[in-house]
Design brief:
heterodimer, A: alpha+beta, Alpha-Beta Plaits, 37% helix, globular, B: Anaerobic Ribonucleotide-triphosphate Reductase Large Chain, Anaerobic Ribonucleotide-triphosphate Reductase Large Chain, 2 domains, eleven-stranded mixed β-sheet, two-stranded antiparallel sheet
Amino acid sequence: MKRTIITVVGKDTVGIIAKVCTYLAENNINILDISQTIVQGYFNMMMIVDTNQTNRHFGDIVDELGALGEEIGVIIKCQKEEIFDTMHRI
Amino acid sequence: MINIYEVAETNQMIEKENLDVRTITLGISLLDCIDSDLNRLNEKIYHKIYEAAKDLVKTGEEISREYGIPIVNKRISVTPVALVGGAACKKPEDFASIAKTLDKVAHEVGVNFIGGYSAQVSKGMTPADKLLIESIPLALSQTERVCSSVNLGSTKTGINMDAVKLMGEIILQTAEYTKENDSLGCAKLVVFCNAPDDNPFMAGAFHGITEADKIINVGVSGPGVVKTALSKVRGENFEVLCETIKKTAFKVTRVGQLVAQEASKRLNVPFGIVDLSLAPTPAIGDSVAEILCEIGLEYAGAPGTTAALALLNDQVKKGGVMASSYVGGLSGAFIPVSEDQGMINAVLAGALTLEKLEAMTCVCSVGLDMIAIPGDTKATTISGIIADEMAIGMINQKTTAVRIIPVVGKGVGETVEFGGLLGYAPIMPVNKFSCDAFINRGGRIPAPIHSFKN
């Protein structure tokens, strides 16, 4: 299964996870794992999601999540998992 | 499973430390375009390149978006044009028409450089090689995106000193032909010793005759990433220093490997090599010289610079070689002057001279690169500089190169602005003593004794 990593970084505020999750649910993207931490007052969240069920084009998801991030005032990135796997796993 | 800290580390490298894939270069063989009719030759070249490369830029952008990693350049390299045009070209203008075709197709498929306006003359020149070399000033003044390279020597063949002499004159002529743009033509012209067939970096990329019909080569970068990693081990011993460089080079190269494989799959073109080079840009924090400073030098060029660079180059290779099954090209640290803010600062501070740069090229992956010199430098002096650099490559069995820009109308103390990735450079002084009698001897320097391994 090809997985995707969504990261959210920015100032902590009410409803960040809710908004991201709503978007994912609307587009039939399943969340496999969520972890979050606060680093130096900044909200850091990582989601591992499964985009196999969605009929959306990957590039559009990247753009729309980016735009959603701008709306909330955080940076949302959506990247295929392989880039992290190849870099950090032998 | 990947954890949040690993994800954050990767994204920090991309966003803050300028980690990028410097280039996806599509190598295209033009051998099957050869024709004795010049118009038909140009037509065939145009169609072959257009068909092969029409999706290159789009594919590069898609990969970039999906993985969140910038892919700065998409480029094309072709079979050395002297081989392709030999049957059709009877005068330098004929060759220049091929350059125009290359430029046109480069614009249409959207690549920013196309390399391979080249000749391989390490032992001797065919009439076609000579014609192509003579056409370089014209070709580079009439085109925007074409890059030219000439291989003048190798460990196996020795150095073709007739060609070295000729290239001194050609570089000056190219400077003259492009003097309106601060002699920019010379920034797209490089001479080599031991030129690799699969180098993805410009200006020296060409698609060697040992290669398949089409191939994808990828050049990675990431001086900023190495510098940041080293800033965390200040004061530690050399073992720790080397370990840190190796680990970082491994991570950077893995990204290149991933992008190369994806591009190969999507374009249905075989994957050639990853070139694991530290290639700087003029951007702040994207500098090889700053790594040298981080290793412990006040400026690049200070005593210890050659040792620091040797260590850096070796560790980059050791870390990178495990990250990809096929490494090639130039693979090492690049030390261009105009494209590296740290190098520029070192020249301005008086820490870095042409002679020190020459010493540095003995231990790193290329040579005298993007160095601006006074426009009134003699052709034989340029040939002398080239000969020295070729000798370093020949004896040390490594690639060396010279990309030097005699800026017409400018002298020491002035600055030249090339713009974009090519950056800007202070004009550096050149040793004024003559080597005329040496260059004018003619002939070739024999291959060194250690080339006889059979």
